[in-house]
Amino acid sequence: MESQIIDAAALVTPVSSLEHRALRQDDFWTAVPGFRGVAAEEFNTHTFQARNTVTNVRQLRDLLQNIVPETFYTDVEQGLKRAPMALRISPYLLGLINWQQPYQDPIRTQFLPVASQQVADHPELRLDSLHERKDSPVLGLTHRYSDKALFLPLDSCPVYCRFCTRSYAIGGDTEMVEKSKLTPRIQRWEEAFAYIESRPELEDIVISGGDSYNLKAEHIQLIGERLLNMPNIRRIRYATKGLCVLPQKILTDTPWVDALTRVVELGRELHKDVVVHTHFNHPNEITAVTKEAMDLLTERGITVRCQTVLQHGVNDQPAVMQLLVRRLSYVNIHPYYVYFHDMVPGVEDLRTSLHAGLEIEKHVRGYTAGFNTPSFVVDTMGGGGKRDAHSYEYYDRTTGIAVFSSPSVKPGALFPYFDPLRTLSAEMQQRWQSPCESRKMIEQALAAAREQVR
Ligand SMILES: *Cc1c(COP(=O)(O)O)cnc(C)c1O
Ligand code: SF4
Q1: How far is the CA of 331 from the centre of ligand 2 (A)?
Q2: Is pTM, for the whole model, over 0.90?
């Protein structure tokens, strides 16, 4: 026990105090053979990025050629067979991957599955583990918390992340998952709008997806105006991973940025709050292009917050998370949340234990301004909502079971979170293979938590 705590502290390599300002501004994409002759003026346009987005292994091979061994391509092909998400990666991200060491690279890890790193799922994992469909009064609208709701106008994104919590719906079908479709149709949206209007307690709408980046400029405006003109609505947020994976769109898709700006200005006129929520996971994702895009949004007075997903091999080291929060803050993005990885199947290699995440939190808090310090949260399985990771009612590191309560969302209910099996002893991993033993361990944990909340 004690030695593990000391080990975690030893992980903290002191980051040079100015490293967060050293943003890449070289022509990094020219390391990819397929982008060798591409000039910055062309590469840094949203049209080039969209045209050259990679959606299959053949295109990947055409671009990378022989800078990775042939075995890498077969590894990805095999990996995709067991992946819940389809393949989609932007040229910008491809260029940022260190192809000398693709197996260790944090960006490759998030977007390109490799069979050689996949591990068996924890027996308790579920597709749609957050019960978003169960808490949906109309298709594509999740109303779980009393004053806020999640609106999903579409099911596509500029890239597909391996770890997506919405793998039940987002992106094309895969061999593993046939998706619930959320097509961007105004008629469907009208049903969601009618519901939102009919619920006076709703004040806050998250426009997610999918990704707002893939909404047309006129739809950004239509949705924004429609919501802001409802008397009950006080706050809206557009959720997009775009700033992280394709910042070029902010620089060259003027109609889209202007539409967003108009909604933000309408909000200001109506004394309502309109912000953007984005999603960065590693400091390497923030470059001089990100800063340029953020400078433009800052000039327009647009607030941007970041939600990060804690992932093994990507950002589960204190120094990486520290650098990420400082670099985000440097470009005016407010770190808002760090989510523990949801309990979704097919990406078990990416999850961390609750304990490991809590250790990282200790190193992040106090490292920069409090308002730029993210809360570490667990979005509970079964629809209990987000909980501060420290607020568990019960946690046993031997079985890897944590239990949360959520009095404001589902009073009286208890919600378990499970550490990945690989963080447990060999004997305990064996025990989890027996459904009967697993039941017993879960029952015991719930009983102990029930004692606690009484
Ligand atoms: C995350 C989430 C929200 C927004 O929650 P915040 O904690 O305010 O960011 C709203 N609805 C659902 C269903 C969510 O999952
Ligand atoms: S951008 Fe968001 S919604 Fe889209 S695949 Fe990634 S995590 Fe899922």
Answers
A1: 22
A2: yes
Superfamily of domain 141-391, CATH level 4: Aldolase class I (3.20.20.70)
Element of type H or E holding 64 = helix 57-64
What's the distance, Cα to Cα, between the start and end of the chain in Å?
29
Residues with C-beta less than 6 Å from any ligand 2 atom: 157, 160-161, 164, 166, 170, 209-211, 241
338 strand-pairing partners = 308, 376
Predicted local confidence at residue 360, as pLDDT = 98
User: 131 C-alpha vs ligand 1 centroid, how far in Å?
Assistant: 13
C-beta 150 within 6 A of ligand 1: yes
How confident is the model at residue 104, as a pLDDT? 97
Using a 10 angstrom Cβ sphere, with 0-12 exposed, 13-18 middle and 19 or more buried, the burial of residue 23 is middle
Kindly report, residue by residue over 179-220, the tens digit of the pLDDT.
888 888 899 999 999 999 999 999 999 999 889 999 999 999
Task: Give the number of the ligand closest to the Cα of residue 209.
Answer: 2
Closest-CA residue, ligand 1 atom 2, reads 150
Show me where the domains of the chain are located: 15-117, 141-391, 394-454
Residues of the chain with pLDDT under 70: 1-16
The pLDDT, as a whole number, for residue 1 is 44
Contact present, 204 and 235 (Cβ < 8 Å): yes
| Residue 224 Ramachandran class (φ > 0 left, ψ -120 to 50 alpha, else beta) | alpha
Res 318: pLDDT: 97
C-alpha span between 191 and 420 (Å, rounded): 39
pLDDT at 57: 98
Is the CB–ligand 1 distance for residue 275 below 6 Å?
Answer: no
The DSSP letter of residue 301 is T
CA of 9 to the centre of ligand 2 (A): 32
pLDDT at 6 (0 to 100) = 53
What pLDDT does 454 receive? 80
Closest atom, ligand 2, to C-alpha of 85: 5
- Give the closest residue (by CA) to ligand 2 atom 3: 210
pLDDT of res. 16: 63
Quick check: helix, strand or coil at residue 178?
coil
Atom of ligand 2 lying closest to residue 210 CA: 3
Q: What is the pLDDT of residue 129?
A: 79
| Nearest atom within ligand 2 for CA of residue 156 | 4
